[in-house]
Amino acid sequence: MPGRLAAALTLGLGLFGLACQPSIGDSCVLSTDCSQRGDRLCDTSQSGGYCTVFNCVGDGCPEEASCVVFGGRVPGCLYSDRSIARTARSFCMRACEVDKDCRDGYVCRDPRSPNLQGIVLDSDQSRRVCVPREADALTSPALSAVAPVCSAAAPPLPGPTPADAGDAAPPIDAAPLDAGPRDASPTDSATDAPDGGG
Asked: How far apart are CA 103 and CA 7, in angstroms?
């Protein structure tokens, strides 16, 4: 009987421990602060750490989160939902409705805003997420500038102008004869080639 009681108590505490798993967006120092199972990681590049899932897919995050791609657009290029930029990274981000839903130092924003330039991969494109206050405050000319990376127009190349491309110039023969019948002599190829191929 005491063995059963100890086993039940251990099982109950284990289930309680799983139920208290930190949520996406919680602060962390190590990935084990986010999950003992290794299915969540601590993004220490964010203020106070940010429990997340890297490389998420659409509708693949826990219920309290949305899957957002950052760096998914190449400046000057239209977004294609068939493939995102190779430099893009997707993260599960804490979903929210108002700033109070986020922890201290974070604000609730639409990840598709010009400052964040995120792409929501979930079916519900309207969800807002908790982002660091300093990321929301970033405004840079580089974010709004359109680089001509995907432009179809090439820079002008130097070449003939209509004035010097007329019929007045004589044609140039690019391949003159080098050893025709008139240049052949009996000693031309017969004397300089070895006999017997060796």
From this structure: 37
